[in-house]
């Protein structure tokens, strides 16, 4: 599990088979201080497992399924850098939101415009991710925890406001219209969707006070909606 706060930038290249080498850029080598074999690292929002530690990076495996569902297979041709974040430690600060590292779909940058206080960036949103987008809610773009500023379901696109610090220290600044990005919806939205599926029961107790089927009326009554 991650928080969507990027710690470093790196480059990625294939080594053949399912192995990929991720190299940290010089100013981002601090991520290597406690990196260990078997650790999880989010690479542009994709959870990968460290298979080998290098002096300035690490080697990880990415399955064909992962490459089909994410941008990793084309990243080195699309732009030079990937965002890196190590997994959340127990007791660590959650400055963004809970990010699983399981990409729901690939979107595309439509436009990026600098304003007085931020960058406004608009992306397309495939159906696999669109149903989890909520204005003022959280979304993960290339592993970055961002807040949805606006959502236009009829156009299948959303806009985020990116503060200058995030823009400067992540690979968002290298994107151009047409660039592909990894998208992950908020895990809370996925659980709510599961609970609201008709005809399904989600009780795990025989307590007489158990709510039985979770419904919109039940969530409203108990202050969740």
Question: Order of strands side by side in the largest beta sheet?
Answer: 1-2-5-4-3-6
β-strand percent reads 35-45%
Inertia-based shape: globular
Mean pLDDT score, rounded?
Answer: 84
- The number of helical segments is 6
Query: What is the chain-wise order of helices and strands?
Result: EEEEEHHEEEHEEEHEHH
Which secondary-structure class do the elements indicate?
Answer: alpha+beta
Poorly predicted regions are: 204-211
* Amount of helix: 10-25%
For the sheet with most strands, the description reads: 6 strands, antiparallel, barrel
Distance between the termini: 26 Å
- Radius of gyration of CA atoms, rounded to a whole number: 19 Å
Number of strands: 12
Write the layout of secondary structure elements.
Layout (H helix, E strand, L loop, with lengths): L7 E9 L2 E6 L15 E4 L2 E9 L2 E5 L2 H6 L5 H4 L3 E5 L18 E10 L4 E6 L2 H4 L7 E4 L2 E9 L4 E6 L1 H6 L10 E6 L1 H9 L20 H6 L4
Antiparallel strand pairs: 1-2, 1-6, 2-5, 3-4, 3-6, 4-5, 7-8, 7-12, 8-11, 9-10, 9-12, 10-11
Q: Could you characterize the architecture of this molecule?
A:
It is a single chain. The chain contains 6 helices and 12 strands. It is of the alpha+beta class. The strands form 2 sheets. It has a 6-stranded antiparallel barrel. Strands 7-8-11-10-9-12 form a 6-stranded antiparallel barrel. The radius of gyration is 19 Å and the shape is globular.
Short description:
The protein is an alpha+beta fold and 225 residues long. The protein is 16% helix and 35% strand.
Keywords:
225 residues; alpha+beta; 6-stranded antiparallel beta barrel; 16% helix; 35% strand; globular
